[in-house]
């Protein structure tokens, strides 16, 4: 009987030993898992720190970029203004054939012809500083524009106003006088061409404002300025609705 009891004790002891080994292995695995969690937590903390640092840097970069873009826009506007101011005494003349002036200097020819084209008295003269054709290469059958720089701004304005009142021709060619603007100003103005025709039809077009270039519309004795064709179209649509329903305003 003692042998039976001893055998049962040995079996129990073995089971306890096995359970102890199992618990030891479990504790080791648990310890490893805890260490892995701790390592991952540290890595997550590091990642969050790096992300926060990156986000801060991005915010600072975005702020700096916004400031730079604003400054660039200001410089572009200022440059456009300076360029247009430098051109304020200039006019471009279209329609003069390339060889019309003959052997005479172009400045002499244009100085002589402006009063004639405008139907002014012979004693009415204008002093021109420079006259030359634009630098673009001439194309077959197409005449380059003639750039005219007046000594006095008032003379340039007078000639431009008088030229707009008349149909000028020379040797059967239509002669047109236009203002000399920067390429960007010309681009902006062209964008308004379609809506301008609508405002002209209702006698509301009032030219353009300079620096920045904006469309001027006269309505109810008040000048309205528009920076984009879309803004002008929206305003015109409002006028059309008002005209259809006079009681709206």
**CATH-level-2 architecture of the largest domain:** 2-Layer Sandwich
The largest β sheet comes out as:
5 strands, antiparallel
Instruction: List the helices and strands in order.
Output: HEHEEHEEHHEEEH
The helix count comes to 6
How does the helix and strand content classify structurally?
alpha+beta
Rg, rounded, reads 42 Å
Account of the 3D structure:
This protein is an alpha+beta fold and 249 residues long. It has 3 domains: 33-86; 90-180, L1 transposable element, RRM domain (Alpha-Beta Plaits, 2-Layer Sandwich); 185-248, Rec A Protein, domain 2. The chain is 58% helix and 17% strand. It has 6 helices and 8 strands; from the N terminus they run αβαββαββααβββα. The strands form 2 sheets. The protein has a 5-stranded antiparallel β-sheet, covered by helices on one side. Strand 7 (214-219) and strand 8 (222-226) form a beta hairpin. It starts with a helix and ends in a 5-residue tail after the last helix.
């Amino acid at each position: 009987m003692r042998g039976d009891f001893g055998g049962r004790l040995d079996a129990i002891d073995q089971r306890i030993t096995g359970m102890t080994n199992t618990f030891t292995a479990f504790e080791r695995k648990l310890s490893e898992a805890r260490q892995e969690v701790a390592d991952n937590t540290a890595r997550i903390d590091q990642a969050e720190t790096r992300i926060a640092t990156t986000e801060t840097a991005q915010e600072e970069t975005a702020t700096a970029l916004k400031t730079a873009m604003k400054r660039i826009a200001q410089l572009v506007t200022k440059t456009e203004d300076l360029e247009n101011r430098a051109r304020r005494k200039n006019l471009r003349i279209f329609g003069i054939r390339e060889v019309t002036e003959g052997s005479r200097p172009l400045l002499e020819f244009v100085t002589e012809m402006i009063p004639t084209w405008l139907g002014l008295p012979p004693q009415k003269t204008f002093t021109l500083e420079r006259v030359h054709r634009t630098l673009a290469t001439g194309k077959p059958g197409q005449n380059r524009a003639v750039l005219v720089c007046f000594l006095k701004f008032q003379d340039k304005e007078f000639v431009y106003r008088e030229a707009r009142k008349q149909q000028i021709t020379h040797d059967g060619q239509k002669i047109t006088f236009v203002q000399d603007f920067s390429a960007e100003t010309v681009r902006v103005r062209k964008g308004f061409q379609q809506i301008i025709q609508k405002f002209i039809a209702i006698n509301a077009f009032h030219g353009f404002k300079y620096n920045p270039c904006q469309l001027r519309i006269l309505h109810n004795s008040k000048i309205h300025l528009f920076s984009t064709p879309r803004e002008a179209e929206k305003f015109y649509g409002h006028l059309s609705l008002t005209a259809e329903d006079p009681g709206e305003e």
